[in-house]
Amino acid sequence: MSNVSFFEYSYNPAYENSKEVAQRLCDLGFICRARHQHSDYTIWVQNLCILLVRDVEDHPGAGRITGMGLNVDHQTLINQHEASPDPATDFFKLTVNDFNIYMVEESVLTEKSLINYEVVRDTVNHYNKGLEYFSGLEINLSDPGKLYLKLTQLGFKEDSGRLLSKNNRFTLMLRESGAI
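^ thats the sequence. predicted structure below, dont judge the formating
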């Protein structure tokens, strides 16, 4: 079982400074909720939309979605032998074609958050008229086959050329870069 919990957004501070990124996220209706105590990761939310934001000095070009986080059950997590603990986020992480997949058991997510993340703002505007939740993502890769295989191993199912999460609330479309 794997359900999408958040997206990772990466940017290069040489191209965009953190204040510009923060202002852009605020303009879009996101608020910074938490900051990791031992890394530069911050958590931004808007309703049920969650972004794990990081600055990466060697990130090529403008900021973009570079990964996603999944709530997984214990059995799914222990079957991912390529995944390793990521001290920058405190989640398990594997990278496929430069796309990061973070995995955390839902039963320990709150505990990990309380221990390793400092609350920046503890109130959320529940009346925000922006995004309610993320329902899909299109990923362009030079070779989407490896990511496709990994996502199906994690419980996504194929439906008319798309991948759907187990609860059918999230759709992934993998495209080969340059394909129309």
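The longest helix spans residues 106-116.
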